[in-house]
Amino acid sequence: MREKLLSGDLWAARIDKLWKEVDDGVYWIRACWYMIPEETVSGRQPHNLKRELYLTNDFADIEMECILRHCSVKCPKEFSKASNDGDDVCLCEYEYDVHWRSFKRLAELVDGDSDSDQEWNGRKEEKVDDSDEEMELDDGVLKSKRGGLTSASGGANSCKGRFFGIEKVGMKLIP
What we know:
The protein contains 2 helices and 11 strands; from the N terminus they run H-E-E-E-E-H-E-E-E-E-E-E-E. Strand 1 and strand 2 form a beta hairpin. The radius of gyration is 25 Å and the shape is globular. The chain is mainly beta. Residues 1-107 form the BAH domain. This is Bromo adjacent homology (BAH) domain. One of its GO terms (molecular function) is chromatin binding. Keywords: Chromatin regulator, Nucleus, Repeat, Transcription, Transcription regulation. Residues 113-139 are annotated as: Disordered.
């Protein structure tokens, strides 16, 4: 079976969704495809293992009867423990973007890890006035209904040199 997968006669997929059509009773799945290294832009490299696959962002809705059998795709830690479990065990350490032709290492959550944003919120956040105060633009100067003046030349997300919301999206304090 592994030889057919590696030759491109078979494909591996992760099942993301399963449903039954009301009209004809046919079962369908949404499959997120895996690729073998030969199908990527860089091809198979010397560091690739024989049973290595890449998870892609390519998906399709297919009939469930197209599924031949179950295979296991594991992270590197689990794969090292399951190396003697047969040919239907594969390794997946990276995700491959078929549109941008780029690789991204898949994050592993080890026991005890949590999904926290502590790394991103390393510095104290500035106090920001979140009031819905109305502002008017007059010749490049924002006039507040409270009477204060602010400059409008800072940008769409800024007011008095402070940025609102952008520091939570992809910014990290570099020591």
